[in-house]
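User: Predict the full complex structure for these chains.
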Amino acid sequence: MKRILVIDDAATVRLYHRGILESAGFEVSEAVNGLEALERLAEGPFDLYLVDINMPKLDGYGFLRELRAKDIPQGPAIMVSTEAEDNDQRRAYASGANIYLIKPVKPARLLAHVLTLLGESHS
Amino acid sequence: MNPLLNQFLTEGRDFLEAIGAKLLELERAPEQGALIDDLFRLVHTLKGNSGLFDIPEMTRVLHAAEDLMDAVRDGRVAFSRELADQLLEAMDFVSLLIDEIAEASTDGQPPSTSHHAKDAVRLGAALRELMPEHPQTPAVSDAPDAASVSAGTESGSRPETDDLLDNLPESVRHDIQDRLAAGEPLCWLRYRPEEECFFKGEDPFFQIAQLPEPLWRRLGAREDWPPLPELDAYRCVLEFELILSVEAETLVEHFRYVPDQVEIRSLSAAMPDPAASASSSESQSESEPSSWAGLSPEARESICLTLEAQREILVLSDNPSWLGGRLRAVGATLAALLTSLGRDPAATGLETALEAALATDSGTYLLRWLDHQTWPASKPAAPEPIAETVREAIMAPTATDSSPATKTADEPVKFGRRADDQLATVRTLKVDQTKIDRLMNLIGEMVVAKNALPYLAARAEERYGVRELAREIKTQYSVINRIAEEMQDAIMQVRMLPVSFVFQRFPRLVRDVAHKLGKDVRLVMEGESTEADKNIIEALADPLIHLVRNSLDHGLESPEQRRAAGKPPEGRLTISARQESDRVLIEITDDGRGIDPDVIRRKAYEKKIIDETTLERLSDQEAINLIFAAGFSTAEQVTDLSGRGVGMDVVRNAIARVHGSIDLRSRVGEGTHLRLSLPLSMAVTNVMIIESAGQRFGVPMDAVAETVRVARRDIRVIKKRLTTVLRGRLVPLVALNDLLALDTPQIANDDDELAVLVVRIEKEYLGIIVDDCRETIDIILKPLAGFLGDLTGYSGSALLGDGSVLLILNPRELL
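Assistant: Here is the predicted structure of the two-chain assembly.
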């Protein structure tokens, strides 16, 4: 089963994402900030990362940079933020994100992106 | 309730709590950058959460608050009391919305909060007012009300007439093209009946049915259908689209009464050149494999966005040390994208391109590879073949609506949990209270059931004469007893709440009240982590607030008065909690003006609470205690704050209900000290069993002072009341049978002595004459329910080990 790591300090957002992803049959793990997410990598790399930007301890940018510097299989990362500014998108890409989405992401949209990034068929 | 909404509400309350606390902390130490960061993050996250639901009022206010906090974080705005006030008010509003949603939500969707739209606008504007430039946010991003928001999101999904033909099923389009080529007059018609049309006697469906058979038609809704219970069937939101083989003039004539609700276009003009259209669709089908045709709009969007993003990533020129990781992530993304489109990444040379990119430490090779691939266009080449369903659709409007694809995908997701969920990181569980209560009830029954074993042992020995078995039962009983007790203890632990649950609202309360009264007050809280049973803590909330208000209102003086009295201008209010054996002690101390016993004496006398003789006899402490008497209030004027018609007697009764007591000491000019003593838990009650008129009753041990035998000759009648002297103290006596209206005299023992249970109520002693006093036991007290609930003389009932029911007397009410 494809494994997805959802990193967000808001439990509501984690639950929201978990609900969408699990209903599509993916295995979801959660981390409440970047540091915890890095710890979760000990279980092995994930197939996809869903990363919030603003988090205590280690934010999304920091986590992605650390992740990309690791010598492990590099799964795609979706950065999810409430900021709609161009700046943040560029910063996300420069930090190692592969796509950048604005919250809230509608279930159908999120699922489509996840399917694309996990190499699953859309039909 | 929808678990997601539930989570949002729970988390939202936590956030609000934290935001309030941080704001107050910040007010004390405005220079703390870390606090401001935390505050911003909390507001930001809460706003993000609210965006998951359709609560525009909440999102609006939070958005403004977030912008303001952002400005504070950047140093563009200085943190001030005014700003804190404004933010606190905004958070109160959000809190109100959360409460409302929690109340009303039944079907998993938050209810409409649009009646608060005005407040939301006002609060949002007030917050923006505090911003340096307070830029007028464009109406689009900060829509004025819920209606325009939904209208805004709506318009995007409506097909425009221009690409009308693109949205037609293939077969219909061909048919239309053939007919147009043959010179037939075709018209496209869109009819949007007024919302109120049913009330005007219009019949949109009849209008449509009266037209000749169309070549194509579609019936849709102008907006998303609300959940069924909210659906207003008398509001018409339908939208008809048809293509007919008639002249435009005929249609104009047909709809002459509602010209503003129809849009008519003659297709011969709008129709693109059939040849061109055919060739364009051919060229698209050439470049796109057939499997891509079935891609949903979301899938196409995701593919395009992913490709575009990878391009942007690859052209970045920042060259970080971990560029390899970035390139491999892009490689993985592109490989996944190919796989998702049903292509084999290995066959496309992606791997070679990635290797080349990694070798040269640059994205160039991957970019080049990207450019040489064919990708799906962002718009579908042809819409899904829905030709046949459309024909039926007009007859069954709910079955197929204009956007079936998005509809099904947007359906609420089911939040199932699987066994392999990784819950390892969860250390705290939030459990519904009813579940704990159920556990509590079960363990209560268990404790009672276990008590049957000693009876059983006794029976085994006395009646069947099997001593061996009796002993074994007793041994087994002690094991079960130990486990049950530990279990009970463990469950009680779960029910324990720290007093901070009540205390946490004091900083805000004290701040606001002191503010209002023009007083400077320093609040000191101690022992917030002291724990007690949930019921106790909850019962404590209102009385405590009342006491704190009283201290602020009547106790502490204004800065001027304090200075005049030679005290520091800032008053001090201490609220502390600690545990002492099996009681929780809560103390509220202020260094205010104290209570003057003479003033109390005078007031009490004026209000006829005491008579003249008492007036002279009362000690100062007794006088002060008079403020607990019913109908006593010393405030000269009823203030907005504490004078709410709730006196100290109400406070004392509320405390007494959970078997607590309250003690007040005060010195004029030095301050007042209140001490509340409460049990840790009220789940288990220790009662003494007494007998009277052949029945057994329980009396809570905390009311029992002693039990004595009094010879009948020592009982005198003074002022028509039975009285006796116990250790030099005059104790009034009552017979329980008289109290309960049982028509039998109390039974004395062989020495003509009567059993007397001395109970203490407040500071008064009273003897209750009973037939006999028996052992004390622990029971689980169940309040009387149903029509017995009005019997105040009993505090409840309990099941005994032998299966009988014991009624527990409530001496306070009984006398």
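Helices of chain A lie at 11-23, 34-40, 60-68, 86-95, 107-118.
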